[in-house]
Write a structure and sequence with these properties.
- The structure holds two protein chains of two kinds.
- Chain A is mainly alpha-helical.
- Chain A has a domain of 208 residues.
- In chain A, 73% of the residues lie in helices and 3% in strands.
- Chain A has 15 helices and four strands.
- In chain A, the strands form two sheets. Chain A has a two-stranded antiparallel sheet with strand order 1-4. Chain A has a two-stranded antiparallel sheet with strand order 2-3.
- In chain A, strand 2 and strand 3 form a beta hairpin.
- In chain A, helix 4 runs antiparallel to helix 12 and helix 5 crosses helix 12.
- Chain A is globular, with a radius of gyration of 19 Å.
- The two termini of chain A are 33 Å apart.
- Chain B is mainly α.
- Chain B contains 13 helices and four strands.
- In chain B, the strands form two sheets. In chain B, strands 1-4 form a two-stranded antiparallel sheet. Chain B has a two-stranded antiparallel ribbon with strand order 2-3.
- The chains are: A mainly alpha, B mainly alpha.
Chain lengths: 313, 321
């Protein structure tokens, strides 16, 4: 058993150790009701991380996810009254389209993805400010409950968000494991030049990866706005860092090619447990960002595949 | 004459022509744009941004990227206020000590940034993004989310004391830009940045300690971010954890719009100066001609994409990540 063979198992071992650690400190933590509500609360973040996984899986990054979710909370709040249930379709199409745009700028115009997604994020921020008039918006509570109430209720003791998360995870897992698209994304992540040389339409698949990332960020924003019954241009700030952390501690390295959406599910749980444990150990909410920043550095350093980087820029 | 329209010439002069064109355009729409008062306004807005942009220029010339500026500026601004208050609260009472202390703190943050990037072999954009998050987090931790105020007329003279209509901080920035230019063109370190950016393996093969140059680049950038942090306090009279907000987007856009190529080795301080002026003239001009200010981030987004596309030699690269 050498370290390399153990490496893929790190994420779930980390998760178990963390859960055991917190559980011993405070047995209340392990109560099913507590664990379930913990999991329910993290779902918007999980959906965003799920999308980011696709961007990182091909060796790129999507820094627009947070601005996208911000914009969607505004869009959902503004158009709920006039569009009803169709507002969900509008949000997803918008996310998919803007993700496609990021992908186009990256692949066709040769702008590195961290710049292109930052730029698209700037556009999202402008749109959000324009639509909202820079105010916090509220949804009509009755209409929200009638149309989207099912998203945030409970079935028995299980929060409904978890069913949404499970459904999206299943779809993403299907795309990753059972479709040509999933295979192609793996090829691009493992070695883009080789993938292109073997006749794969790399450009199209990369654009699709960014589009999926955008669509899932939009769904995260939609769910978040339903939960809060409103939206604002900066309401989802603070999502980006833990979302990236979730993908990386799950075991999808920045260099892409390995890991995947199941890893991100474990990574998100690790993030949730770290958050909860910080509360138990009396770490203030104000310190969380620092902790996650440090966790991010450790996670990248442990997972990154240095054989793919001839020079580290 | 045939060689007048070469790629190098276009990159060198196009940003300046764009700047002049923009100024003519805004003046034509609203003559109030072309007034000394408005220019002073642009200069004040541009001053801290220029310091951040110059810092990141050194990094981009090396072909790396630094996304830590929001955290570094926020943290140094907050630390500056604390040290300033702890050492007397006025420049006359000895609080000037805060300036060298904060420059050192900036260098230290840059050093950590460089060490994480080089020693752990993490791509610079992610290493610096994480350090930036840590910086903002540290600033939140120190302030507890509050605002720290500085009330010293001598220190605020940076904003209030005007020579020829421009506040003192504008002249400080000009001096700092000259220092940056000196480092870039008249020191070994400056030359080495270009050597690394032009071709890292070649630089390494000719015996250059590339890793040391990279780390020193981040240290230098950290010092310039610290200057931006101090100027930000001088401008607003206060600091909080979000004092550095928006600098990431604005500074990188400025550097790229000025003609510094993201791939490294091309462009320099003067490109950045022109780029910062372009971005600030656009931001100011949009307000002057009556466009709503929420368009600015979207505008910056379009600008950075156009600039990267124009500065990329598309035949020489096969793919980007």
């Amino acid at each position: 058993m050498d370290l390399q063979r153990l490496k893929p198992h790190f994420p779930w071992i980390t998760l178990l150790v963390l859960v055991a650690f917190v559980g011993i400190t405070d047995p209340n933590f392990l109560k099913p009701a507590n664990l379930l509500s913990l999991a329910g609360d993290i779902v918007p973040l999980f959906i965003m991380a799920l999308g980011l996984t696709f961007a990182i899986y091909i060796g790129g990054i999507d820094l627009s996810a947070q601005s996208m979710a911000n914009m969607i909370t505004v869009v959902a709040s503004v158009y709920l009254a006039s569009l009803g249930l169709w507002v969900a379709a509008l949000c997803i199409v918008l996310g998919f389209g803007l993700g496609l745009l990021s992908g186009f700028i990256t692949t066709r115009l040769f702008v590195p993805s961290f710049i292109s997604t930052l730029a698209v994020g700037g556009v999202c921020f402008s749109v959000a400010q324009w639509l909202s008039g820079n105010r916090a918006l509220n949804m009509d509570a009755d209409q929200r409950d009638a149309l989207f109430g099912w998203m945030i209720g409970r079935t028995g003791i299980i929060p409904n968000e978890l069913f949404i998360a499970a459904a999206l995870l299943a779809i993403c897992l299907f795309i990753e494991r059972r479709t040509t698209l999933g295979r192609a994304l793996k090829a691009v992540g493992a070695g883009e030049l080789a993938a292109a040389a073997s006749g794969l339409n790399v450009t199209r698949y990369k654009m699709l990866a960014f589009a999926i990332s955008g669509a899932l960020a939009a769904i995260a924003g939609l769910l978040f706005s339903v939960k809060l019954s409103g939206g604002a241009p900066t309401i989802a700030n603070g999502f980006l860092l833990p979302a990236i952390v979730a993908v990386l501690v799950g075991g999808t390295p920045l260099t892409g090619g390995v890991g995947g959406v199941l890893n991100t599910a474990i990574g998100t749980m690790i993030v949730a447990v770290i958050r909860a444990s910080m509360l138990y150990f009396g770490v203030q909410a104000t310190q969380q960002q620092m902790v996650f920043g440090l966790v991010l550095i450790v996670a990248i350093a442990l997972t990154i595949d240095r054989s793919k980087l001839r020079t580290v820029k | 004459m045939k060689r007048l329209m070469t790629r190098e010439n276009a990159i060198r002069w196009a940003p300046l022509l764009v700047l002049i064109g923009l100024m003519i355009l805004f003046t034509a729409i609203n003559p109030a744009f072309l007034s000394q008062r408005n220019f002073a306004r642009i200069a004040i807005a541009a001053a801290p941004a220029l310091m951040v942009a110059i810092g990141v220029t050194f990094i981009i010339v090396m072909g790396s990227i630094d996304l830590s500026m929001e955290g570094t500026v926020g943290l140094t601004a907050v630390l500056f206020c604390f040290v300033f208050l702890a050492t007397g609260g006025t420049l006359a009472a000895g609080a000037w000590v805060a300036v060298p202390v904060i420059l050192l703190a900036g260098a230290l943050i840059g050093l950590v940034n460089g060490l994480v990037h080089v020693k752990l072999r993490i791509p610079s954009f992610m290493a610096s993004l994480a350090i930036g998050f840590v910086g903002t987090g540290a600033a939140v931790l120190i302030t507890g989310g509050d605002i720290v105020k500085i009330d010293d007329d001598t220190f605020r003279a940076l904003l209030t004391w005007r020579i020829a209509g421009f506040p003192l901080m504008v002249y400080v920035v000009i001096v700092m830009a000259l220092i940056a230019w000196f480092i870039q063109s008249h020191t070994t370190l400056g030359r080495n940045f270009y050597a690394v950016g032009g071709g890292e393996e070649l630089a390494h093969a000719s015996g250059l300690n590339v890793r040391r140059v990279r780390i020193l680049g981040f240290v230098l950038a950290g010092v310039f971010y610290a200057v931006a942090g101090i100027l930000q306090v001088a401008k607003l009279g206060q600091a909080e954890s979000v004092s550095g907000a928006n600098f990431m987007f604005i500074s990188i856009t400025s550097v790229v719009v000025g003609g510094v190529a993201l791939w490294g080795g091309i462009g320099g301080i003067w490109n950045t100066v022109v780029g910062v002026l372009i971005v600030n003239v656009i931001n100011n001009g949009m307000v002057v001609i009556g466009l709503p200010d929420y368009l600015q981030d979207g505008m910056l987004g379009l600008l950075v994409i156009v600039a990267v596309v124009l500065s990329t030699d598309r035949r020489s690269i096969s793919f980007v990540k």
